[in-house]
Task: structure prediction
Amino acid sequence: MINYNNKTFKAISNSESGEVDENTIFHYYQKENIVWGTYNGPKIKFGTFTGTIHEENYCLHFAYQHVNDKNELMTGKCTSTPEQMPNGKIRLHETWQWTCKDHSTGESIIEEL
Result:
């Protein structure tokens, strides 16, 4: 089983319509099948996420919200599929959608530090 508790991740790629960039840092916590955390970066003053872990494939399903550098409240939903890298670290392949503004979709990848 993958344990996300006390893991720190950094974004390595994101779709153009996203606000996460390579300087965005995520802090993950876990209790049983619940995952939550915080994130921030140059375009994001403060963000939070809460979700669940699928028991069979360890995918994460969560909702997120943040205040961006324009002081806008942004909200969305995301599914993250984990990949165990050869060095033992976790890489998350994410598909997401804004639940505000234009409701656009995107993909991102974040890796454990």
